[in-house]
Amino acid sequence: MTFRARHLLGIEQLSPLEITTILDLADRYVDLNRRTVKSSDVLSGMTQINMFFENSTRTQASFELAGKRLGADVMNMSVASSSVKKGETLIDTAMTLNAMHPDLLVVRHGASGAVNLLASKVNCAVLNAGDGRHEHPTQALLDALTIRRAKGRIQRLTVAICGDIAHSRVARSNLILLGKMENRIRLIAPPTLMPAGVQDFGCELYGDMKKGLEGADVVMMLRLQKERMDGGFIPSEREYYHRYGLDAEKLAFAKPDAIVMHPGPMNRGVEIDGELADDINRSVIQEQVEMGVAVRMACMDLLARNLRAERGRALAAVMP
Amino acid sequence: MTTLHLVNAQIVNPEAGTVSTGSVTLAKGLIAAIDGPKPKGATEIDCGGHYLAPGMVDIGVKVGEPGERHKESFRSAGLAAAAGGVTTIVARPDTTPAIDTPETLEFVTRRAAEASPVRIRHMAALTKGREGREMTEIGFLLDAGAVAFTDAFAVTTDTKALSRALTYARSLGALVIGHPQEPGLSKGAATTSGKFASLRGLPAVSPIAERMGLDRDLALVEMTGARYHADQITTARSLPALQRAKAAGLDVTAGTSIHHLTLNEIDVGDYRTFFKFTPPLRSEEDRLAMVEAVATGLIDTISSMHTPADEESKRLPFEEAAAGAVALETLLPAAMRLFHAGHIDLPALFRALSLNPARRLGLPQGRMEPGAPADLVLFDPHAPFVMDRFTLRSKSKNTPFDGQRMEGKVLATFVAGTQVFKA
């Protein structure tokens, strides 16, 4: 088992071995979560603070549940509506929290790089729960776990990532992770939602969804991030659905056993057909949610082990 | 005033393009002689075989007066400039309030003269409040000593207002300095679009926005015949347009910043806000194209684009952080990187740092010849050091070179024949 990281800021900093370590441990937590008695004590006595500068229901609930199942004291700070509005800077908020001696800090922020900045100022393990358009590492990890359990492997697969790639941190983390695990990645998006220079990341780019889906093992749909758009990226939602919305007809171009994924929340009828999303033979969207809790438990468990070891070393260094 | 006789110097003459060993005599504020005999009663200074060049004339320095004196005052900027070998600061008018009336211009002129050991000249805003609507009192401001007119980074979107201002400026022979950028395209951008910006998930602008802004400005210059200087050309795509305008005989010059000559977009690394600039840092290809354009003379001037920012405005997520860096004290060692890399020789560097900016503004500085103002910098281009930002004299410490190994130290600075700095 190899996991050296102090924080989980992004997939970019993880090695393939570390990714595998997280997924293996998460598999064990999936089993735990399916039992009636789900409690564990690996984080008992530790304090976890969820600090969400952007509104979130699903991710915050998932992190909260993950922490509680591991026995941590979990506190939710809805910073989106508090002191930040009074003009306090991110650093000041971080320093205030740091003084309360948390052990795990789960942070979501609207600006890319904000979580990296915060991590450099605190003495605990920081988990990035999404920063701007940069990274959302636990989402990519839970997607990888879902794929591995459905396909039996997370290598040598053809994965099509489709939709609003420009505004998506999920897409960035996923394409870094899938690239590190040596998969073939296709990005499907209208040109206005395709970020510049992504062809250099070793992806194949498609404007035509049907061509892009041909022979795909995994179809990963993204949410159209209307709240991040400053207008005019697509002509209309109905034209978008016609050209880039996933329905049975377009999915027929992928492999017959291809799975359909979506990070949620879905815009039914905009990027994905409602019936298809609910089709238990194709859609693994509910499993993604289940894997989310397990992956977050695994990440926090591993970070907590490193934090304990680090504090132990620091203590040993000052002992005579 | 004592007469100074500087001996044993390697004299950099940007006009002649030469470096020669000899002596320089300074008397009555002017260069009295080069390689002349030591006058009676003169104080001799041994330059120890180091290089002596015309002091730098830095177009586009932001000083925080009025409005942001906690970031930089005329005193701190002047001390930083003296230590950096900049003998003439050409201050920007993007202060709070903007320098857009003869009264505010007189205020900063008086403050600067009291506080600074180096010369400070002032630019005035081209439009009132830098809002791009009504032109300022260009005539009065010229009389009050404005050396150029610019709205700094605020790009005038009202093309008609800009064409009127250019037409009016032309009738008075005033120099207009533009910031070539298409503001619609660059709105909200923190980086240059491309692989790096996409990886970091940062809002980005295509380098084409600079060419679009330049194309518009040059078309208006063609129409009005105004004297025009582009503050910072930073992308290769802008160069053909600049070349064509010069070949067509338009009264056009261009500058670039020392940061765009020595750093590229990758330097931003892990969201380091000290590397955030307006315009943003470009690709390595663009950087090399700018270096070559300076070497060939297509780009006329190099500026520090000194922009003080305090810790509070930099310790923020990248998108929200202030842009710009302090650079008066790092201008020379950073420029020496181009010299050491073999890209540009010393006379050509000082042509862009001293001679050309002075000429463009109609100032007598920048020359190494008898009769020219005795504004000089003595430096050792090879002296190595590690940059520590807390040693800077500027009130703000936001330099991207913090912790970097640099070569090139200013040993002494002379303004009007008086030594204002000694290392």
Mind explaining what this structure looks like?
Chain A has 320 residues and is of the alpha/beta class. Chain A has two domains: 7-134 and 289-307, Aspartate/ornithine carbamoyltransferase (Rossmann fold), CATH 3.40.50; 137-286, Aspartate/ornithine carbamoyltransferase (Rossmann fold, 3-Layer(aba) Sandwich). Helix content of chain A is 40%, strand content 14%. Chain A has eleven helices and nine strands. Chain A has a five-stranded parallel beta sheet. In chain A, strand 1, helix 2 (58-69) and strand 2 (73-77) form a beta-alpha-beta unit. The longest helix of chain A is centred in the last third of the chain and has 34 residues, at 285-318. The radius of gyration of chain A is 20 Å and the shape is globular. The model of chain A has no long low-confidence stretch (mean pLDDT 93). With 423 residues, chain B is an alpha/beta fold. Chain B has a single domain (55-366), classed as TIM Barrel (Alpha-Beta Barrel). Chain B contains 13 helices and 18 strands. In chain B, strands 1, 2, 3, 4, 5, 16, 17 and 18 form an eight-stranded mixed beta sheet that branches. In chain B, strands 6-7-8-9-10-13-14-15 form an eight-stranded parallel beta sheet. Chain B has a two-stranded parallel sheet with strand order 11-12. In chain B, strand 17 (405-415) and strand 18 (418-422) form a beta hairpin. In chain B, helix 4 packs across helix 7 and helix 7 runs parallel beside helix 8. The longest helix of chain B is centred in the middle third of the chain and has 17 residues, at 208-224. Chain B is globular and about 65 Å long. The interface between A and B is medium-sized, with 25 and 22 residues. Chain A: Reversibly catalyzes the transfer of the carbamoyl group from carbamoyl phosphate (CP) to the N(epsilon) atom of ornithine (ORN) to produce L-citrulline. Chain A: Pathway: Pyrimidine metabolism; UMP biosynthesis via de novo pathway; (S)-dihydroorotate from bicarbonate: step 2/3. Chain A: It is an enzyme of class 2 (transferase). Chain A: It holds the Pfam family OTCace_N. Chain A: Keywords: Pyrimidine biosynthesis, Transferase.
